[in-house]
Structure formats: structure tokens, C-alpha cells
Automatic annotation (TrEMBL):
<dbReference type="InterPro" id="IPR032675">
    <property type="entry name" value="LRR_dom_sf"/>
</dbReference>
<keyword id="KW-0833">Ubl conjugation pathway</keyword>
<feature type="domain" description="F-box">
    <location>
        <begin position="7"/>
        <end position="53"/>
    </location>
</feature>
<protein>
    <recommendedName>
        <fullName>F-box/LRR-repeat protein 12</fullName>
    </recommendedName>
</protein>
<dbReference type="Pfam" id="PF12937">
    <property type="entry name" value="F-box-like"/>
</dbReference>
<keyword id="KW-0677">Repeat</keyword>
<comment type="subunit">
    <text>Interacts with SKP1 and CUL1.</text>
</comment>
<keyword id="KW-0433">Leucine-rich repeat</keyword>
<dbReference type="InterPro" id="IPR001810">
    <property type="entry name" value="F-box_dom"/>
</dbReference>
<comment type="pathway">
    <text>Protein modification; protein ubiquitination.</text>
</comment>
<dbReference type="InterPro" id="IPR036047">
    <property type="entry name" value="F-box-like_dom_sf"/>
</dbReference>
<dbReference type="GO" id="GO:0005737">
    <property type="term" value="C:cytoplasm"/>
</dbReference>
<comment type="function">
    <text>Substrate-recognition component of the SCF (SKP1-CUL1-F-box protein)-type E3 ubiquitin ligase complex. Mediates the polyubiquitination and proteasomal degradation of CAMK1 leading to disruption of cyclin D1/CDK4 complex assembly which results in G1 cell cycle arrest in lung epithelia.</text>
</comment>
Length: 332
């Protein structure tokens, strides 16, 4: 960089610009920067730089998390991603209730916690930071009684969004346990194969306040899922389902849904019973607030079916895209 004929270095940049640059670096590189000079050490210690921490790309031992908690995590921390704890062997490191409790006390503004490949068998839901608004569990292990303790209203009172992806122990009883979270408005179930049609229907009856529901690669068919939604989630705004078992009569149960704004149908292939474009248009035209129809992985891009859908739904944005990688894994 040259300013007025004088060569400028990285250190000549304003602190705010340096902090912005540092924020894009992995955690390990941020810490290494603190060894460059005193100026950069002061910048690395700035709480603004540690608002969002992603450790899911590392297999970080709990003792390292404790160090980061004491050294860098402050009241400015808003989101944290952890992963790599579900290791084989009796000596495998695990997250602990003490670590979760300390995290909640040290970081009172933590709103988003995302756990990847974590063993939560010894971590009750009561130990999670009570300030969380979003909780994501990806390929995690939970105990059979997780979420099944007494209905304590002080547990995660602000939780608005929960994502459960490939959590093999999650079943109907756990889903029923989500009804304790009265602030919950968004629920994503991905590959939770122990959840049954009856369990989903019974739970949605008590989760009638949900505004977003995604059921992807699960045991219930698309028809049974949409039927349960139409019965109990009259205020739902966003629906995303996989098309296994989706038929024209199954889709028609959504006709007249008063608040539905976005509908996503996802699958690897178009199934024989899949509604035709004309049948999809017929159902969608009865939804007064529908503005987005998304088709993921259905191989309709560039085909006549897509043109028909876009022409028949001029008030909707018809989006055709590939199926997300994490969703493809649920069919493997």
C-alpha cells in the first residue's frame, strides 16, 4: 500500500481495520498474532474480536476451552461453535456441566451455541447457559433422559431456535420435552430417525406456537408431516420437508394455510407420487401469504416444469437449487 509516495505497512492501518481483518482468521491464528508485538497483543485481547468463536474445525480438549474461557471469552461473546469431543475409548474427553455453567457465568450475552460431534451424555440441559436463543446439536450423543427432567421454567427461557441434526438418541419423548421451551419458534429435525409419525403429531399439538419447522430425512413421510402441520401449526410461516412419501393429496392439506410464507420441498430425486407442477400450483394459489417456493435437488432446473411453476405462480419467487450437502448425507 502506498500513501503519498510513502510505503505503508499492515501496522499502519487503523485499529478498527486491523480488528476487522483479524476477525476473519481462525482462533489459532488470532492467538499467534498476539506474539507479533505489544500493539497486536492488545488488539487480540480486545473483546470485540471474540464476539464469535468457531472451534468446530478443531478437536480442542476441554482444558484448552477452559484456557480460552479464562483468557479470551468475555461478556461480548455472542456465538460459540465447539466440536470433536465424541472420541472412542474410555479416556475420551467430554464436555462437562462445570464447563457449561462457567460459560454461562462468564459470557452472559451468549446467544448461539453450536455443538458438533459432542458427547452430552453427562451434560444435562439444565447446565446450558440460560441466555441461549439458538441451540444446534450436530451428530451429538445425548442421554436417554436428556430433556426429560422436571418441567423447570428457568431452563433456557429465551430459546427461540433449536436444530437437531443426526442426533441418534433423539426420540418422541425428547420431542415432547421441547414443549417446555415456550419461546421456541423455530425447530429443525434432520435425520432424527427415532421420531415417529405419532410422536410428531402429538408434539406439534403442544408446539402450536412454532413459526418455522423443518423435517428432513426423518422417519415420518412428507404426507404425515404436512398433515400434522396443517392440524396444529396454523401460524407457521416457513416449512421445509423432504419429499419422501409426498403426494398431491398430502400437499393439498396445506391449502388455505393463512400465515405460510415459504415452502421448501427437498429431495434427491423426483418420486413417482410427487405432485405435478399443475397440482403444486393449485395448492400454492390457495395460500394467501406464500411468497417463496423452493425446490431443492429435484432436477427440475432448466426443465419445462420449472417454467410452468414460475408462470403459474407469478406472485411467488420460485427457487430451484441443488440439495445442500448436509441434507444429502441423510439419505446415504
Amino acid at each position: 500500500m502506498c500513501v503519498s509516495g510513502i510505503m505503508a505497512t499492515l501496522s499502519d492501518l487503523p485499529d478498527l481495520v486491523l480488528l476487522e481483518i483479524f476477525s476473519y482468521l481462525p482462533v489459532r491464528d488470532r492467538i499467534r498474532l498476539s506474539r507479533v508485538c505489544r500493539h497486536w497483543k492488545r488488539l487480540v485481547n480486545d473483546g470485540w474480536l471474540w464476539r464469535h468463536i468457531d472451534l468446530s474445525v478443531y478437536q480442542v480438549r476441554p482444558k484448552v476451552i477452559w484456557h480460552l474461557l479464562h483468557r479470551y471469552m468475555t461478556s461480548r461473546l455472542h456465538s460459540l461453535r465447539l466440536g470433536g469431543y465424541l472420541l472412542s475409548g474410555s479416556q475420551a474427553s467430554q464436555l462437562s456441566p462445570a464447563l457449561m455453567n462457567a460459560l454461562g457465568q462468564k459470557c452472559p450475552n451468549l446467544k448461539h451455541l453450536c455443538l458438533h460431534v459432542a458427547n452430552l451424555s453427562m451434560v444435562p440441559v439444565t447446565s446450558l447457559p440460560c441466555t441461549l436463543r439458538t441451540l444446534e446439536l450436530h451428530s451429538c450423543e445425548i442421554s436417554m433422559d436428556w430433556l426429560l427432567e422436571g418441567q423447570n421454567p428457568t431452563v433456557l427461557p429465551l430459546l427461540e431456535c433449536m436444530v437437531l441434526s443426526r442426533v441418534p438418541a433423539f426420540r418422541d419423548e425428547h420431542l415432547q420435552g421441547l414443549t417446555r421451551f415456550r419461546a421456541l419458534r423455530s425447530l429443525v429435525l434432520g435425520g432424527t430417525y427415532r421420531v415417529t409419525e405419532m410422536g410428531l403429531d402429538a408434539s406439534l399439538q403442544e408446539l402450536s406456537y412454532l413459526q418455522r419447522l423443518e423435517v428432513l430425512g426423518c422417519t415420518p413421510s412428507a404426507d404425515s408431516t404436512l398433515l400434522a402441520i396443517s392440524r396444529h401449526l396454523r401460524d407457521v410461516r416457513k416449512i421445509r420437508v423432504t419429499i419422501r412419501g409426498l403426494s398431491a393429496p398430502g400437499l393439498s392439506v396445506l391449502e388455505g394455510m393463512p400465515a405460510l410464507e415459504s415452502l421448501c420441498l427437498q429431495g434427491l430425486h423426483i418420486t413417482p407420487e410427487m405432485p405435478s407442477p399443475a397440482e403444486i400450483i393449485s395448492s400454492c394459489l390457495t395460500m394467501p401469504k406464500l411468497r417463496v417456493l423452493e425446490l431443492q435437488g429435484l432436477e427440475w432446473e432448466g426443465q419445462e416444469a420449472v417454467r410452468i411453476l414460475r408462470k403459474g405462480l407469478p406472485h411467488c419467487l420460485v427457487v430451484v437449487r441443488a440439495c445442500p450437502k448436509e441434507s444429502m448425507d441423510w439419505w446415504m
